[in-house]
# Entry
Amino acid sequence: MSLTYSTFVTSLANLISVEPTDPGYLTALPNIIDDAEQRLYRELDLLSTMVTATGLLTSGSRKFTLPTTSGTFVVVEEFNVITPAGITNPELGERVACDIGLEQRLRPWIAHRCDDTAAAGL
# Structure
């Protein structure tokens, strides 16, 4: 069944037992649609949505700010740290992988795998 925006609005309103013209429903509708889109991006893992980005780490800190120049990151699947500090060309340093099932690991595992005892929180 294909839907236009208008038939989608009516169909969803019927599904959740609310009038399609209800002001609260119409106010929430953009967020409902956005939440559904974001879940699709996370669940489908579309090749066209994958990006690679590089950035610099701060010594003594586990925190890394994801760059926004490539777009908004929805899911971080893997990351690598190039050592020693100051190396910007990955071919000249050693790659330390922290990418084994990252999306399914818990914070304690990540803290142990990429330990930094001087920093707090992850």
